[in-house]
Amino acid sequence: MKSFARRRISSAVCASAPILAGASLLLALSAPLQAQTAAPAGAAAKPAAAAPASLPNNGLVHPIFVLNSLDASVSVIDPATWTETKRIPTGKEPHHLYLTPDEKSLIVANALGDSLTFLDPKTAEVQRTVRGILDPYQLRFSPDMKWLITAANRLNHVDIYRWDGKDVTLSKRISTGKTPSHLWVDSSSSTVYSTMQDSDELVAIDLASQTVKWRVKTGSLPADVYGSPDDKTLFIGMTGGEGVEVYDVSGGKEAKLIKTIPTGKGAHAFRGAGDKRHIYVSNRVANSISKIDMQTLTAVAQLPGPTGPDCMDVSADGKLILLSSRWAKKMTVIDTETRKVLRQVNVGKSPHGVWTLDHAPR
User: How many domains does the chain divide into?
Assistant: First the structure.
């Protein structure tokens, strides 16, 4: 019960229940989630109504995967019909997904299950389960494909695993600040950045020596972190605030705050728009999505993000956002051009990570 209670407190950075500054906001957001009814693990879900013929799939041909954190399952959605075709049981509290460098496996990080589930991204079949991975809340590969890094959200450490193309071997466990949340690795595979949710910090880890390089204070409840293509700038969603903090990390120097971009309350998770210039951020409390220009450091568009927007993916043509709506047990499909909700697909309890092989360039 202790670990579950802590996970509830960790939810503002993509966990299983809402966390916000202020007790009234916490109660207001937690009520819808607590009222949800979980489906039996592995059970086939009741499919959503058939999609209207006019609803586009924008070149999406492979399955769409949605993590159901409180059901310990993954919903598989067919983009041709926009219906859930099956649920795959996983370990306890799956939270994030990541594709292996060869694109042959989609890894599900089961935080409370201390395991990784490998899925075929084309067929949605389970390939294998790797156990003994302590609290893999968030994960990321280094671009040089040598390392798999995981953030242990409830255990206050970041693990660096050596990756040989198939298996993972723990190389170093690094103690961090309180509640490491999200990760980013620069394009040269030299530095790992990790946000510390409960100590309000950004920590940089040198991959060569596998030691902490520096740590700086941030705003309230830092969540996802996203780096610009030139490695000079970091964007951090402030789930306890109302915007995105922008840091200068050029030349490998210690991060320096240069601006806060107003987006909306509960700025949380990022996804690239596919053009190497714009990124989307979900505003968890404001129920919106902001589009940010990484060159001008401004929010240039606002889109709907119904019912606790969390993680998302973007179609290869950049015209659709696939969003996890945490408190509604749905995946929401949003048109990026008209800025309208096209459809919501029923999934499991507390949907979190979203992924498809047919995604826009990261």
Answer: 1
